[in-house]
Amino acid sequence: MKLVFASNNKNKIKEIQLLLPSSIQVLSLEDIGCQEEIPETANTIEGNAILKANYITEKYGYNCFADDTGLEVAVLNGAPGVYSARYAGEQKDANDNMDKLLANLKDKSNRKANFKTVICLNLNGEQTLFTGIIHGQIIEEKIGANGFGYDPIFVADGYTKTFAELTIEEKSLISHRGLAVKQLVDFLK
User: Fold this and answer.
1) What is the pLDDT along the chain (189 residues), one digit of tens a residue?
2) Is there a catalytic annotation at residue 68?
C-alpha cells in the first residue's frame, strides 16, 4: 500500500516510517511533486490535520494522512497549542520557540504540559482521526541533542530524560506521535 504523508518535515517522516510496517510505503510531499506550502489556518490541532489531508486528497488525488502536533502547557491555558511551530514568530525556529516558552514559565511552579498529535487519514473516500497525547513537564533548560521542536525541554511523566535525550526508537515507543501512529497502523491492519 502507498500512502502520502502530507509533510516535508524530514524528522517526522523518519519517525513515521520507523513506526509503519514495511508493507506500507510512505510517500512525502516531495515524492508527489507538491512544492507549495499547505495552509494551516485552522484554530485547532484537529482542524489543521484535516486541512492538510484534504488538500492533498483534493488537489493530488492520493490516499494520504496528515498530522498536526501541539505542545499544550496547562498554566498558559494550553498555549502554544496550535501555534507551537510559530510560537516565537513565522520563522518557525525551534530555539526561539523554546526560549519564549521558558521565559513565559520563568516564575511558574506548575510546569505540566502535554504533547498532542492528531492524524487525519483520508483513505478510499473515508476520513478517520487518531489522537495521541503524552503528559509531562517542561524543564528549566534545554537538555539533549536528539529529536526536534520542544523535545529538549519536555520530560514525559514516568521518565527522567527529555525527549531529546532519548533515541528516535525510544521516543517513538512512548511519544504522542507514536501513540497516534499506532492507532493508524492498527486501523490499516
Assistant:
1) 899 999 888 878 887 888 888 888 899 999 999 999 898 999 999 999 999 999 999 999 999 999 999 999 999 999 999 999 999 999 999 999 999 999 999 999 999 999 999 999 999 999 999 999 999 999 999 999 998 899 999 999 999 999 999 998 899 889 998 899 999 999 988
2) yes
Between CA 56 and CA 114 the distance in angstroms is 28
Q: In 3-state terms, what secondary structure has residue 80? A: strand
- The candidate with the shortest Cα–Cα distance to 69, out of 87, 89, 57, 91, is 87
Q: What angle do CA 6, 65, 76 make, to 5 degrees?
A: 80
Domain that residue 127 falls in: 2-188
Total domains, the chain: 1
Which residue in the list 31, 68, 96, 157 is annotated as catalytic?
Answer: 68
Residues pairing with 115 in the sheet: 71, 134
Amino acid symbol at 12: K
Q: What is the pTM of this model?
A: 0.91
The owner of cell 499547505 is: 38
CATH number of the domain where residue 99 is located: 3.90.950.10
Which secondary structure element, helix H or strand E, spans residue 129, and what is its range? strand 126-138
What amino acid is encoded at 67 in this protein?
Answer: D
